[in-house]
Design a protein that fits this description.
heterodimer, A: alpha+beta, B: alpha/beta, five-stranded parallel beta sheet, about 30% helix, globular
Chain lengths: ~450, ~475
């Protein structure tokens, strides 16, 4: 059997790769799974494995050679196989550095690459990447399907909770992944809302270029130093990165937005907080309470998609997103439907504080039936959050803002807050979500209902 | 006084914590002085663990001889001489203590005889009959002075009629009747020894059960087996006074609100141990203490930089093996390594009475208090071929695990060689093994260790031999 060894595509952006070193010589026997060569991309060195057995009959791209993705770089075959055809089919051994624009050979090569056996997937970005110039300490993520250096307990908890061990950095002896590493990753995982950590201001989209002549010359002073820096993913960042596409991809989101008159809720909150003995109540607490009451009236929103069924929850557990340095976490307030406002206020404060110092317990991080993300403290007027599966909806809350409002034909200043409900359309329909949101709005506009 | 001699590290005390840390320091290339006012080896080798194990072995032999008929052996007249048991135990202790002296010499550790006092954060003054000498620590001082027996309020230990374990390992005479106050490991071990030699033993415990830090089921089983051997166990007893008189000792106590009085030839006080820090000069240096023990960081450093404390004086479990582990951590931290801190949740607890008791991790009751769902598997030694063949089929092995993940939360053993069997689970917990991993490990047949396999299977609902 003749097996072509192809330059693997290690990332979406990768167009070509360089053979750093062949680890087998021509004529040397190889079997499936043997590491046969080292490939360099712009960021990392990767080892590639053979996916066929036989002899390494021909090295087509020698050490140092650079070729487009999908190009055949070597041939593995049995001694009897005639590989003349394969070799002849190929361009002459490329120079050590072909022109950058070396055209990827259109269809045939692409096909050849795609038809490569599945084992090619072994060389994914999560594969044995030795960080070029890295600090040596970085524990290489283990190959997928291969050996992961993790304790049995860590493996088991990971399997049960869907954590991918390959994304984790082990803190046990010798970089072994132990239970606490998985639990840390789990703790970071459940959060879902959209942007949370205040992001560095992004330059507005470039306006259409003005006429060139109008523009004064501007010379950029010399700017020494590196142009960018790759910060390795923390377990939390990796978990967020892994989880978010699981939501936005498969979960069909739709959004309904409503503006709430917060004048009375604001006044009530101030009155409550003036009372000495009670716990301080935040706007989020009022929203939690309003959602809890509304959810018990609209069980269809307190629901989740389960593949073959829609699960309607009879208890209301609300996840409240808390922004952390470098990520976010969503601790869960349990049984909000039966808890008075003061209790919700006390518990949410406690959870948020412990979330910030990393003292949450694992059970406090899962089991939400609905979530709330409030970015009002960052002067966000409105935003849309990403649902945290399997929950069916999440409410994104903006700032309470003073703005002119028309009231019975008169213009006056009122306190307004915008809320956007993101719904999983597999579970919730537009009108259902809208009616729920209307109820939340009504509760907040007649806030004494929150106290009874 | 001669000028101070300088060493990288000065270790005060050569018990299991002290000598181990001294050796580890020396292995890491540091010069070490070890200060000792008694014989090297500390309480463990001289007056505690080792000599009592020798006595317990005697007790075991005596009781086996008593069961000779069961094995079809007819004995003529035989006599168990208690004085000779003590003498044998002293020989064992001597041999082991000499071993420590040898190890210190082999590692080129300077043994300084006398009592060490900290006169500065890096200065130890050692007073002995030959005068006083001063030791300067270039890098660190490790304090490892251990602990001593505590007493109860109003009870004076005279080591003749009211004795502590210190007296018990030395006294070559045995009383006709003995009251043991305290049913912890020490109390239960001596109860076993004396009872085997025919002493009428009564054990008093203030808490509701014997071996109160062990799993409840373990306590119940041990109490049952002790009672069967004729040892009287009384729990929930608060001792009010112990008064030596002409005809023995009177013990006044309160049981369920009623006053009672007991008489015995001797009373053994085994109510715990207190850190031995009194004469070290710690107050002047301002070391933080907590309930009589020195407070330490995870690398065993005290609140004063450069002063480390290990072993009993640093609190937590007062166990020789914990002290040794701490000694290694301290030495490595001083040598600039980054040691793994001691995992205090994974220290085996062992009691060497018959049947032996050993445990690690959480009791069943404590595991049940946690939010998670737990799985418990038990296996009685009556169903273990090796135990039955040995004629030691009393007891059981119990595994407490997290049902979801199979994490080994705790293991509790009563029975033959329990103190050896526990280590399978100690290793398992260190490596974060799950129930499945234990089950997947082939256990030789016939062994006592099969009980570990079977109890683990039972926790998974798959026990074969039950």
């Amino acid at each position: 059997m003749i097996t072509r060894v192809l330059m693997p595509k290690l990332s979406e952006a990768m167009e070509q790769g360089k053979v750093v070193k062949w680890l087998k010589r021509e004529g040397e026997p190889v079997k499936g799974g043997d590491v046969i060569a080292e490939i360099e991309t712009d960021k990392a060195n990767v080892e590639i494995e053979a996916f066929g057995s036989g002899l390494l009959r021909k090295i087509i791209v020698p050490d140092g050679g650079q070729v487009p993705v999908g190009q055949v770089i070597g041939v593995i075959a049995d001694p009897a196989d005639d590989i003349g055809g394969v070799a002849a089919d190929l361009p002459k051994a490329p120079a050590a550095a072909p022109p950058a624009e070396a055209p990827t050979r259109a269809l045939p090569v692409e096909e050849a690459y795609k038809s490569a056996p599945e084992t090619m997937a072994v060389v994914s970005m999560g594969a044995e990447i030795s960080h070029v110039g890295g600090g040596g300490q970085a524990v290489a993520a283990p190959p997928s399907g291969g050996r992961v250096k993790a304790s049995p307990l860590a493996k088991k908890i990971a399997a049960q909770s869907g954590v991918d061990l390959r994304g984790l950095q082990g803190t046990g002896p010798g970089g072994r992944i132990v239970r606490r590493d998985v639990e840390t990753a789990l703790a970071a995982a459940p959060a879902a809302p959209a942007p949370v950590a205040p992001v560095a201001p992004v330059a507005p989209a470039a306006p259409a270029a003005p006429p060139a002549a109008a523009r004064p010359a501007f010379s950029v002073p010399s700017r020494p130093g590196v142009e960018f820096e790759d910060i390795p993913l923390t377990s939390m960042r990796a978990a967020i990165a892994r989880r978010m596409p699981l939501s936005k991809g498969p979960v069909p989101h739709f959004y309904v937005t409503s503006e709430v008159a917060m004048d009375r809720a604001w006044a009530l909150r101030e009155e409550l907080n003036a009372l000495e003995s009670s716990a301080r109540v935040s706007v989020t607490d009022l929203v939690i309470r309003a959602c809890a009451l509304a959810l018990s009236r609209h069980p269809a929103v307190n629901a989740s998609f389960q593949g073959q069924a829609v699960r309607v929850h009879h208890r209301v557990h609300i996840g409240v997103a808390v922004a952390l340095e470098g990520g976010l976490i969503t601790p869960v307030l349990r049984d909000c439907d039966v808890k008075p406002l003061a209790q919700i206020a006390a518990e949410s404060r406690d959870l948020a504080e412990r979330a910030r110092i990393g003292k949450l317990r694992v059970p406090e991080l899962s089991g939400a039936t609905f979530s709330i993300s409030n970015l009002g403290m960052f002067d966000v007027e409105e935003f849309a959050a990403i649902i945290n599966p399997p929950e069916g909806a999440i409410l994104a809350v903006g700032s309470v803002i003073e703005k002119p409002v028309a009231d019975g034909g008169q213009l006056r200043v009122g306190k307004r807050m915008r809320m956007t409900l993101s719904c999983d359309h597999r579970v919730i329909d537009g009108a259902t979500g809208a009616r729920f949101l209307q109820d939340v709005k009504r509760l907040l506009e007649e806030p004494l209902r929150l106290l009874v | 006084m001669p000028p101070a001699q300088t060493f990288d590290v000065v270790v005060v005390g050569t018990g299991p914590g002290g000598y181990v840390s001294a050796i580890r320091c020396a292995q890491l290339g540091l010069s070490v002085a070890a200060v000792e006012d008694d014989r090297p080896g500390g309480v463990c080798l001289n007056w505690g663990c080792i000599p009592t194990k020798a006595l317990l072995r005697n007790a075991e032999v005596v009781s086996l001889l008593g069961r000779a008929a069961e094995f079809g052996i007819t004995l003529g007249d035989w006599k168990a001489d208690y004085a000779q048991a003590i003498q044998r135990s002293r020989r064992v202790a001597d041999r082991m203590a000499k071993g420590v002296e040898f190890l210190l010499r082999k590692n080129k550790i300077t043994l300084v005889r006398g009592r060490g006092v900290l006169t500065g954060r890096n200065l130890v003054e050692v007073a002995s009959q030959d005068g006083t000498q001063s030791l300067e620590a270039g890098r660190a001082v490790i304090l490892a002075t251990g602990s001593e027996p505590k007493s109860l309020p109003g009870v004076t230990i005279d080591e003749t009629v009211v004795i502590s374990s210190n007296g018990a390992v030395r006294n070559e005479t045995k009383p006709a009747a003995l009251v043991v106050i305290g049913a912890g490991a020490v109390g239960m071990e001596f109860a076993d020894i004396y009872a085997a030699y025919g002493v009428e033993v009564t054990v008093l415990e203030a808490l509701p059960r014997v071996l109160p830090i062990e799993d409840e089921e373990v306590s119940t089983q041990v109490a049952r087996l002790f009672a069967r051997r004729g040892i009287t166990l009384r729990t929930g007893v608060s001792v009010k006074a112990v008064t030596p008189g002409a005809d023995g000792v009177a013990v006044e106590m309160e049981v369920e609100g009623k006053a009672e009085r007991l008489r015995a030839a001797q009373v053994l006080v085994a109510v715990g141990r207190a850190a031995r820090t009194g004469s070290l000069g710690l107050e002047a240096l301002g070391l933080s203490m907590e309930r009589g023990f020195v407070q330490v960081s995870p690398t065993m450093e005290t609140s004063v930089k450069g002063i480390y404390a290990i072993g009993d004086m640093a609190g937590r479990q007062l166990l020789a093996h914990k002290a040794m582990a701490e000694g290694v951590v301290a030495a490595e931290a001083i040598a600039g390594r980054a040691p793994r801190p001691v995992d205090y949740d994974n220290v085996p607890s062992c009691t060497y009475c018959r049947p032996q008791v050993a445990s690690i991790g959480q009791s069943e009751a404590r595991a049940r208090q946690s939010a998670r769902e737990i799985a418990v598997g038990r296996f009685p030694f009556t169903a273990n071929g090796k135990a039955v063949a040995m004629g030691e089929a009393e007891g059981f092995l119990k595994v407490v695990a997290d049902k979801g993940s199979g994490e080994l939360l705790g293991v509790h053993i009563v029975g033959p060689e329990a103190t050896e069997l526990i280590h399978e689970f100690a290793v398992g917990r260190t490596l974060e093994a799950t129930l499945e991993d234990i089950v997947h490990t082939i256990h030789a047949h016939p062994t006592l260790s099969e009980a570990a396999l079977e109890a683990t299977l039972a926790a998974l609902g798959q026990a074969i031999h039950m």
